[in-house]
């Protein structure tokens, strides 16, 4: 039985690239038949990375079957995984997020969670010397995943180890980290083809904060103007998205990668109150700039107060 | 703040030794202040191991405080941990059991779960070359944990890696694995001082099987006669233990380490039905011998049918 390797819904570069890396390792090094798959259409940056490294786009699956072998990467959150995930035969989990509880396995399996910026960094460590056998595309995917998750080392989630692994991969491949990251971020910034609702759900996670269900959306971009020019229709769309997804409010943070700041859209008094309580800012108008804020995991979620 | 390192309630050798090993590593290698603690009195084998390797008995704690730093080893099951465990600051989890779901962490932390026989084997891998700095007692605790959890390699949970690590440690220490294991199993078999209820709870885990709550108790011994001679009072005590612990039935498997078989006590028709359905045996009388059955994890739990 082929093991399916996948990351979270709404795949970004790490959730697209890491399954490809790990499926290569299982197939070529461990002798375990494995296939990388996606739980949805990859975002524009991930699509660029596939094309750039000449990697075939993994199949998008609609769901999982009871008893099928799966490896979960880049998440341990059942809400970000297909329904019925606990009925599959989970054989490994590799992740860099907090343990949320909810996944269950039938027996003891390999679980590796590390407080690093990127799943691919953990895979680099787990694969070790066998990485020498990897084709260029696998190493390239690894490099791209880490540049993406660290926002080229600007994100406060970045560790010295993520940086060192990136530098080693770039040297091995003979590529410029800055050129690759710039091209990736440009691809991510090209959001013209997406609807407002699609943008709000593109990189979004739900959190219950003091009883209020918040869908916390982040758009990382080198061209914030493209998004902020659409702020009126984005704010109008928030009402429908919140309703459809059972949330009380959508928060949209537009992260300006190059200027290292986030702009939060403020459509109503609830968000104004949340912004002022959480980030100690004063809001006047329908946006507020939060200098230095780059990471949902490290800076937004821990700060949120309702 | 000192990090407390502990295993599960009703500490056996692995849940007593592994916290000592990891606290040594944190203190002496990682420069993190850490203290091994216990969630109860160690069993007789673990007490022997402490004395044999001249290790001080860790303090027994009554509970955990909100926000205190803890490392959890040899379990990921909240039911085997102090109340309020999710309110502590869990900084790492090292375990070799199935993921049961229920533990939550505030941020991404180090989690290492491996399908190996023993937590100490995983620690051997994580510590790597730094183990050369360890005093004799730490290496001795490691060796004892693995001999205990593998029943000197008789348990089907044993992997080639557990065996290889044991052999390397024994060679390094210049001790006989067989002599050490024999002394440990003798210590574990000395159960004369325990009440029937204490014996039933000594190495016991609750499982819900098809709606029936079973407390599945295992006693590993080289002297099964000492326990089976008490079978009438043990069976009488099962009724009270089940009632007090909210279980429907206690199942007691007396594992004969040397003869590699288990004897299940059969106090009533329910257990007779379970035994026959689960192990394909025919029960006549108040015990049944199950040849080759040594492991709750690998052989008993997966087989249980009510």
TrEMBL record, chains A, B:
Tell me where in this chain the DHHA2 domain is found.
Answer: 181-304
- From which source organism is this entry? Rhodobacter flavimaris
The chemistry this enzyme catalyses reads: diphosphate + H2O = 2 phosphate + H(+)
GO MF entries: inorganic diphosphate phosphatase activity
Name the record gives this protein: inorganic diphosphatase
Which is an annotated Pfam family here? Answer: DHH
Is Manganese one of the keywords?
yes
> EC number(s)?
3.6.1.1
